[in-house]
Write a structure and sequence with these properties.
CATH class of one domain: Mainly Beta
Number of helices: 3
CATH architecture of one domain: Beta Barrel
Low-confidence stretches: none
Radius of gyration: 38 Å
Structural class: alpha/beta
Number of strands: 6
Largest sheet: 6 strands, mixed, barrel
Shape: rod-shaped
CATH topology of one domain: Barwin-like endoglucanases
CATH superfamily of one domain: RlpA-like domain
Oligomer: single chain
Helix content: 10-25%
Mean pLDDT: 78
Strand order of the largest sheet: 1-5-2-4-3-6
Strand content: 15-25%
Length: 156
Amino acid sequence: MFNIRANYKLIILVIIVAIAIFIPAKLAGLTSERESQQYEILSAPKVLAYVPEPKEVSKPAQDVITMIVQSTAYTHTGYMTFTETWPKFGTIAVDPKVIPLGSIIEVPGYGIGVAEDTGGLIKGDIIDVFMETEKEAITWGRRLVKIRVILPEAGQ
């Protein structure tokens, strides 16, 4: 026959399993087997993958210089720039000994451009901004401007 003293661990395990199955169903308001088939007891969502948040990478501040230069203008010549791009609005010719190629230059009255070209007459503190038409280039003339130059990052 069944010996309670010898099987008390098994009896306790059966009671725990019964409580684990029936109590959540009763708490959810389920009263019959038929109702338990209609409702599903939800568990915590499963984590499929852990993706860590990206770490902030601090970039060194780029060097910004301000200088007063003479500015002239040029238009289409039929040639590519020194950096092998076709000139367009925003292309600026510089002396690379003064302003490195690839620098971003803010020119008052013109806007923001990139140092992409050099020129035979562009020596020292002179820049040459590209204009779409000859009329615009002539209207620009020669003028002194205070420019802001953001130097390219090392390795560019």
